[in-house]
User: Fold these one by one.
Assistant:
Number 1:
Amino acid sequence: MLKSFARLASVAAIAAVCFVLPAQAADKAQLLRDASRTVDNLRSDPAFGAARNMLRDARAVYIVPKLIKGGFIFGAEGGSGVLLHRTANGWSTPRFYDMGSASFGFQIGLEQAQLVFIINSDRALRGIEGGNFKIGAGAGITVVTLSSGAEGATTLRGGDIVVWTSATGAYGGLTLNGTVIKGDDEMNATPSTGPLATALRRNLARTW
């Protein structure tokens, strides 16, 4: 009985992720606008503070303007994001990646979050660009969370990836362990080189 229930829970949770991701997927233009707005929010967040120094040597950033997490018994989270890496001439052309995960447990609520992944190492960047990157799945990659409003959070150092997050809702925190990041082949089929992509790159350059 318990095994059957566990299998049912797993199937339901995976189905929840499959539902969340398409529901949160945005077209390129909207996602680029939202990503630039998230950069603005990051810049104005007092909790960000001294963490700005971490960004000087960052290899890349992954911006998720809207991550939705919710559930009753079965939980799921998902969203679409934009990845840019450093080049000799500034920030690269944006590429698009989806993230999502499933969980099971006694939980209730709905949470929406903005996230910025500050990617500090080549191995972390290669992991994400390689596709189906799973946070907390070994590979020796450390992830540090920098929550908006958290006292002393800006003193954190180290980590292959540092995640800034600003979240609202009934959940007490955002757990990224087990989250999968995967390239969006459809969105990445053609390069994003228009004015919205340029505006995002310039906004990032003003931030760090």
Number 2:
Amino acid sequence: MHLTNTKVIHESNGWRVDFIGDDGDAVTVYVADAAYIDEHTAVDRAREIMIGLTAFGTRGGGRSVNSYDAASNGNFDDGEPLLTRH
């Protein structure tokens, strides 16, 4: 996905940032409890959130090589990632 557009919407309790790609795919990040920050800072924070998530699943679904790697990639013995969203 090559980023072509970023939509930023201020909501009552934070910011919704939509990163939109040239292929139509989109990633939405909600920056919660951030109603007091400005738009530029909200986009920066949304990027930081996405960077933090890139550690999950970076081994192509394979097992982690050690406990530190498991913690940073979210791979645990039960096969469930540390962070799940429903």
Number 3:
Amino acid sequence: MKQRRHLVYLLLAVMAGAGAALCWSGVWSLVDVPPIADGEPATVSIVYHPPLLVITWLLATTAGVLTVLGVAGLRRRYHSATLVGYTP
């Protein structure tokens, strides 16, 4: 039963990572910047959208935490099963 919980953590981590990637693709946009002085060319700049940036950060952090919980739980479960009869 506990193994299923850790697999759910890993599945949720993949979903959070996909959500972070999807949010990151919409976090920036290009805008035209007019020239400062006469005779200079116009330039293009990148503008970041703060709300999407925060959501991306939170989803990426959540994905990392869930990955650590899932992998640590699976490793702990595996190693405790292999050390059942071990007595030093």
Number 4:
Amino acid sequence: MQRPWRESGMTKRGIIEELLTRHQNFTHRESETIVNAMFDEMAKALASGERIEIRGFGSFGVKKRQARQGRNPKTGAAVKVDAKRIPFFRAGKELKLEVNGAEASKARARVAR
């Protein structure tokens, strides 16, 4: 069965709809609250410098970027770029296998035609 959110990419709304599909005892408001709470807590953890690990999926963390000298692409003038913290995601082994397995099966299907 094709999921509606898979046609144009995954969205927060699609995640809420999937939760409703899998757990029909939840109301739409409850599903929305669950998804929002999860994302809010993840954002708070990253903002405080914590690492998030979801086994079988991957990990989220924060990398520190040093201040540096950059260039304005339009004028070529030197610009000071301040130090900052950047969130990043590292895919877990199982997710990488799933993604590569999906790509391999699509490639096999194209060859079989």
